[in-house]
Amino acid sequence: MYDFSADSADCVRSVEAGLSDVLTGARLSGPGPAAERLVEAMRHGSLEGGKRLRPLLVRQAAAIFSVSREAALPAGLAVEMIHCYSLIHDDLPAMDDDALRRGRPTVHKAFDEATAILAGDALLTQAFAILADPRCHPDPDVRVALVAELAAGSGAGGMVGGQMRDIEGEEGSFSETDIATMQAMKTGALIRAAVRMGAMLGGADPRALSALTAYAEAAGRAFQLADDILDVTATQEAMGKATGKDAGAGKQTLVSRLGLDEARKNLDAIVADAISALRTFGPRADGLRATARYFAARKR
Ligand code: GRG
Q: What does the pLDDT look like over 18-68, one tens digit per residue?
C-alpha cells in the first residue's frame, strides 16, 4: 500500500541532503572559486522548509517505470533549484515584495537585493549543470531531453512567461481563459516538466508520456487553484508566507472570478480529471494519485 506521508517525508529528507551536498563552495566553483556570500544566499533560499513537491512528482512518475528514488533524485534537485530561484526572484521588491518565505526572511531581506538576484541566477544555472552530469542519467540523449524539458517548463513559454502575463494581468483586463493560460504557464509548466522528466528517466513511450502530461496539466491546475483558495482562507503562520496578497494586488485568480464555493467544486473536478488520466498505469501510479489529492487538500 502506498504511503504518501512516508514517501513525501523521505523525499523532503533526500532533497534537503542533496541540495546541501551540491550547494557548497567546492561543488559550485567553476574556473574561479564560488563567492562565499553567494553560496550562503543560495543555501538560505533553498534549504529548510520547502514541501519539495516537484522532486516528489519526479520520483513518483519515475517509479511507474521502476526507476529508484535515488536515480530520480538529481533530476528532482534540478527542478527544485528552478523552483527556489523563482521564489527568490518573485519575493524581490520589483515583483511581489515579500519579507517572509517558508517562515523565514526572504533572501533579499536576509542579504540584499543584488545578492538575491544573483543567488536566483546561480540556482537557475546550477539546475542545468546537474542535468548535464552523467550521474543524472547514463544516457546522454536522455540528459539532453531533460535539459530541453526543464528549459521549456521554466522559460519564456513556461514559468517566466507566465510571471510576465501575471504582471500584465494586474491591469485588470483578463478573461477566464487568460487567467487559465497564465496559471498553466506560471505554476503548471514546472509541475508538468517535473512529471515528464520523471517519465523520461524511465524511458516512457509516447503514449505513457502523453497520459502523464494530461495528469500533470490537471495536477498543476489543482495546485494553483488550491493556492488561490489558501491565499484567501489560510493564515500567514500556516503558510509561512504572506496571505491575502492576491486581492490586495488586484491579482486575477479563479477564486476572485468564481467565488470560494464554486472554486472548491472546480478543484474536486480537476483532481478527478488528474486521477482519471492515470487509469492505464495500475498501482504503480498510486504515488501520483495521492499527490493530486494532496494538492487539493493541503493546508499550506
Ligand atoms: C520570478 C522567474 C520568476 C518566476 C515566478 C513560480 C513563480 C513564477 C513565482 C512564485 C510565486 C508564486 C506564488 C507562485 C505560484 C506557485 C506557488 C504557490 C509556489 C509555491 O510553491 P510551494 O507551495 O512552495 O510548492 P514550497 O515553499 O513548499 O516549495
A: 999 999 999 999 999 999 999 999 999 999 999 999 999 999 999 999 999
Q: Which residue has the cell 512567461?
A: 161
Domains of the chain and any CATH numbers: 4-297 (1.10.600.10)
3-state helix, strand, coil in the chain (%, to 5): 70, 0, 25
Element (H, E) at 105: strand 104-105
Choosing from 186, 223, 239, 253 the residue with most ligand 1 atoms within 8 A of its CB, the one to mutate for a pocket test is: 186
Q: Model's pTM, two decimal places?
A: 0.95
The set of cell numbers assigned to 22 is 551540491
CB within 8 A of 252, min separation 6: which ones? 169, 170, 172, 174, 178, 179, 182
- Cα-to-centroid distance, 88 and ligand 1 (Å): 9
Question: Which residues have C-beta within 8 Å of that of residue 108, sequence separation ≥ 6?
Answer: 88, 91, 92, 93, 115, 116
Residues contacting ligand 1 via CB (< 6 Å): 50-51, 53, 83, 86-87, 89-90, 95, 102, 159-160, 163, 186-187, 227
CB 154 within 8 A of CB 178: no
Q: Which of 95, 107, 227, 236 to mutate to test the pocket of ligand 1 (most atoms within 8 A of CB)?
A: 227
Using an 8 Å Cβ cutoff, are 42 and 34 in contact?
A: no
Answer positive or negative: Cα dihedral of 132, 136, 140, 142: negative
Residue type, 60: Q
The answer to whether the Cα torsion of 184, 187, 188, 193 is positive or negative is positive
pLDDT per residue as tens digits for the range 136-193: 999 999 999 999 999 999 999 999 999 999 999 877 778 889 999 999 999 999 999 9
CA distance 234 to 275: 26
